[in-house]
Amino acid sequence: MHIPDGFLATPVWAALDLAAIPAVGLIARRSQAGLEDARAPLLGVMGAFVFAAQMINFPVGVGTSGHLVGGTLLACTLGPSAAVVVMTAILAVQALVFQDGGLLALGANVMNMAVAGVLAGYLPFHYWGQGPWRRAAIFLGGVLSVLVSAFLTLAQLRISGIPMPSAVLGLSMALFLVSALVEGAVTLAVFGALEKMNPGWVRKPAGAISRLRGALAAGALLMASLGALVASGLPDGLESAAAKLGIHERAWNLFETPLLDYELQFAEPVWMRKVAAGLVGLAIIYLLCAALSRWLLRRRSP
Amino acid sequence: MEEWARRDSPLHRRDARVKMILLLVFLVWIGTARPAQPEAYAAYASILLVAALASRLPLLSLLWRAALVLPFAATFALLSWMAGDAERAASLVLKSSFSAFAVLLVVATTPMPALLAAVESLAAPKMLVMVVQFLYRYLFVLSEKAQHMWMAAQCRGGIRRASAGGAIAVLFASSHARAEGIHRAMLARGFAGHMPLIRPSSLHWLDISFLATGILVLSLGRWLWIL
Fold it and tell me: Which fold has domain A10-234?
């Protein structure tokens, strides 16, 4: 699942590197906050633990075996931000020492597996980690973490123009589904043993118990990554729909925005314009969501 | 790999920061190379060959290790080829293996602490670099331990699902305890939140000229439309 160098189109790897650097920097600072320098040795050794744990093969079902990927397990024991740092370190070592994944593609791999994968894996535990659905939450977390990173990886390969016939895409998605189920089962087994050994290892989920919100969030994540995969093979869905309905021409007169046709005017090469427009768009959406959530929170607790 | 990094050669002696910058520039050059230019790939290959010869490392084992990307690359190359895009197929294989070889050359000629210090001086988060440092240091220790556990379980008659979960949990617990012990020992030795380098690096004029030559060659190549 590690993308080597030379696979992604320039705009894709450049944009993901640009996005990964501040994301990891921010999370690294956050994981450091509150806990002193004791954190670095612990996180490093736990990263080595994930490598070592991958040597223990798990027999699952008939004749197949899988191994731990580890994102969900780390997130539920060390906390999500620490788990992101550990997974990023693992990916860096794999890229440098084991030639597994490229150096320019490291941003893409980090975004897929360390950031999106770990956070998706932690999400069900965050909402359902205390109730009667605890075991289901851990299983679902393992499944989600692998599925989300697999979908994002496939989407990035596809959007870079790697031809993927639907048979191949279907087959690889089926394989990823199997390995996602394996990851869920392995995480659950290790988690149970850990909890029996010392309940102190396992984190108390900070979120309130809310089945609805958990299901909504997990569903949204899955839909978003699956949507990215579907969209990567098609022309812009909105645009093609608009073209079909004939509102294409009229729409441009309505929306004379600075992000016209998703391209900023001032940057020189075309791909750079597209990347910049995409990042600016993301930032705007993020700011809107942040403002909206702040407003909602303030309204609820005056 | 550890042993390779401790040897001596013109490439080993260059400053880690310089090697890292040149590596990144080289990777970006390959990453943005236009497909279907045989002479460009020949030029990249000859640059890599010169560097490999300068490193005085066994060429065949280097090639073998860099070939680890080939299974993945070949799968997708086959797909592209079947889709009638032979150019892309060739560029996938060449780009990914050249990039892997370049990374391998730098990592195999630079000791890990120096490499990580270089990465840190190029503005990577300090925390992350330290985590990578610990990870690399204990990677082989813990892997060996896991292998012993695996072998012991095989001797007792194989591993079942429940016991595999237990084995990983035991590994988790002992890694956790080891990390605590390590941290206490480090504090006792006066650890103040940063790992000092034993040999502080300083830029030699050879390093600077190496950097300048490398960048000059690469940008000249791009300017002349070869690379």
Answer: Arp2/3 complex 21 kDa subunit ARPC3 (1.10.1760)
